[in-house]
Amino acid sequence: MKVVLANVVVGLMSVGLVTAPAQTPAREAQADLPGVRLSYADTGGSGVPVVFVHAATGSRRVWEYQQPAFTSGGYRVITYDRRGFGRSTVIPAGPQPGTGADDLLALVDHLKLDRFHLVGTAAGGIVALDFAVSFPRRLRSLRPRSAIGSPIGRMPTIPKAKSTR
User: Fold this and answer.
1) Which of 40, 117, 130, 163 lies 20 to 30 Å from 109, alpha-carbon distance?
2) Measured on CA atoms in the order 147, 151, 156, 161, is the torsion positive or negative?
3) CA of 97: how far to CAs of 59, 93, 106, in Å?
4) Could you tell me the end-to-end alpha-carbon distance of the chain, in angstroms, rounded to an integer?
5) Residue 47 within a domain
6) How far apart are CA 100 and CA 4, in angstroms?
7) pTM for the full model?
8) Beta-bridge partner residues of 117
9) Mean pLDDT, range 48-63, rounded to an integer
């Protein structure tokens, strides 16, 4: 029933009969990293960061409707366009990292994030899994969804952050 209702709401939104919830403003920027200029959005603030990694069929914009829920819970939300997607630009003459996890590491270093929650779906879940294996000490939690190797069944939720405001 929930899936049917969600599909109806999305369908009504697409024809303009229902409006989307207000979006949490996020600062959009570009990070000049090895071999790529990654486009990202960051809600900022002092909350615990949650980084979202999109699938191979989209861009960081697929996460826009999650931003209000997480920011109202006290989190800082970061989304980005993976290499070759959305507004990110590959710089062929520049040094090329080995994996999407290397791009993510460069971005979180650029943003000066120490430890953060990581959420990824489909191919973004694969990037998230690779990051977790390669840089486990950087993560507070990992939530891959619809990715080969992601756990089956219900995942625990990210705990509600204590307000720092």
Assistant:
1) 163
2) negative
3) 20, 12, 9
4) 37
5) yes
6) 34
7) 0.77
8) 50, 141
9) 95
pLDDT at 5 over 70: no
The domain total for the chain is: 1
Written as six digits, the tokens of 34 are: 């090895």
Cβ(68)–Cβ(36) below 8 Å: no
C-alpha to C-alpha distances, 93 to 34, 36, 90, 116, 163, nearest whole angstrom: 10, 10, 9, 31, 44
Query: Over 104-152, what HEC string results?
Result: HHHHHHHCCCCCEEEEEECHHHHHHHHHHHHCHHHEEEEEEECCCCCCC
Provide the H-helix boundaries in the chain. Answer: 2-14, 67-72, 100-110, 123-134
In a domain, 7, yes or no: no
Range of the domain at 105: 23-145
- Residue 125 sits in a domain whose CATH number is 3.40.50.1820
Q: Quick check: is 57 in a domain? A: yes
